[in-house]
Amino acid sequence: MKYQNPIISGFYPDPSICRVGEDFYLVTSSFEYFPGVPIFHSTDLVNWKQLGHCLTTTKQLPLIETPSSCGIYAPTIRYHEGVFYVVTTNVLDGGNFFVTATDPAGPWSDPIWFKDSYGIDPSFFFDEDGTCYLTGTGGHGEEPGIYQVEIDVKTGAYLSDRKCLTVGTGGAFPEGPHLYRIGEYYYLLMSEGGTEYGHMLTVFRSKTPYGPFEGYEKNPILTHRSKDHPIQATGHADFVQRSDGSWWAVFLAIRPIGYPRKYHLGRETFLAPVSWTEDGWPVVGNDGMVDEVIESEWLINEQHKEWKERDNFDQATLNLKWIYRRNPIEEHYSLNTKEGYLSLTGSSVTLNDTAAHTFIGRRQEHFDCKVSTSLRFEPKESEEAGLTVFANEHFHYEIGLRSVNGKTEAFFRKTVGSLTLIEKRLDYEEDRIELCITADSQWYHFEIVSPSGEVTELGKGECGLLATEVAGGFTGNVFGLYATANGKKTANQARFNWFDYKRFGKV
Ligand code: 6LW
């Protein structure tokens, strides 16, 4: 049977996976978005359904004025004796910590913070004797490398000295480590080269958990660096074994467009089969290369991608795909489930500020897609609300309604670094409007539809100007509904009646 990569598309990087019986659980990074650390479930590794998020409270995930692409980095999920553990880093807001749950759908515990926590990419390994090893990168001026300490999983207290396991094969940014015990060896999997085009996965092994670790002579075991391949930046992997004995790797990769290459969907989650050499070294995919379509005799199910095209905002809680930027100010959001709309109240914070915007978004998962929404809004002076495609505060395009000199206008604006341009403005007499963004792999096209059905194109913007190579950071593009009073206070609500996301072409 065949499946198509990515297995989870859109900005879902740094995947980590664990198995409990026939069930697999997978988590990814979430940075400044809230709730944090989406958690997915699968029984066949190719069909994934989101169960929820691991970090759903401000106590677990303080993100007050967290800069874009700070917040939650690479989590690891592990299961031990009836308990799930997710260990991760809140960069700039507390460092390394973990949460636990008996039901992966939640609720997850309050955070248990490590004292004197160092570095990023923490991972847990529970050995047969119950010892829990915390493995992660260096920090606080240490030599870049992978470091390890034993911990008490009730309190997070360190039970041993912290030791360096390896500095890797010499690539930049030794990171993303996971320790496993397979057969007679402890295997240390890690990434090097940085999360961009030089990304690679390397493996080491030892007879003891602290080494000495011997590197595989054929390292790296996964990389697409300097290859002409549509998938790039492969790395940051975690291994899992199915109950049928087959081994698999989940990892991140990107799908850049054009030349020079640029990617705007972020780093996505991919899957590859893992085989073993006779002398016990892992081989990922096709000798370290992975294609979009993979055929494997070990697959047990067809791949169907979970899909929901319309949100009518008529449920008591928002669909799990919706995410806020930083901790939301609750009173700025309300769902009227009876009449089926989501109301947003703007604040003085604009889309350009490093603060909690009034914003609710969902990841762009496909190159070819169309998102649209119906907005009812009577803006007062300085207010605006609309639909944005958002990379970060300095890189975003939007259309919406706003008030200028007592008049309502529909507008299309581009913010690209320090350049801001209102590309189109039209007097608009109605208080209802449909806002649409149609994406292909090169362009976002913006249009509005009046209540009488009249369609007006407002313009287009390059996807490449919102791509990571231009906008920077670790996230991918998100479509968002937003409201702002641009420096003023307001109680005026922008009501969104529905939101559609249609995909075209391949998943
Ligand atoms: C993550 C690091 C990485 O912590 O990018 O690709 C960082 N790998 O391991 C942020 O996602």
TL;DR?
The chain has 507 residues and is mainly beta. Helices cover 1% and strands 48% of the residues.
Describe this structure in words.
The structure is a single chain. The chain is mainly β. The chain has 2 domains: 2-295, Tachylectin-2, Chain A, CATH 2.115.10; 310-503, Jelly Rolls, CATH 2.60.120. The chain is 1% helix and 48% strand. The protein is built from 1 helix and 39 strands. The chain has one helix spanning 468-471, and strands spanning 2-4, 16-20, 23-27, 33-34, 36-42, 49-55, 71-80, 83-91, 95-101, 112-113, 123-126, 132-137, 146-151, 163-166, 175-182, 185-192, 200-206, 214-215, 222-223, 232-241, 247-254, 268-276, 282-284, 293-295, 310-311, 323-325, 333-336, 341-345, 358-363, 369-376, 384-392, 395-404, 407-416, 419-427, 432-439, 443-449, 455-462, 478-484, 493-503. Strand 27 and strand 28 (341-345) form a beta hairpin. The longest helix has 4 residues, at 468-471. It is globular, with a radius of gyration of 23 Å. The two termini are 17 Å apart.
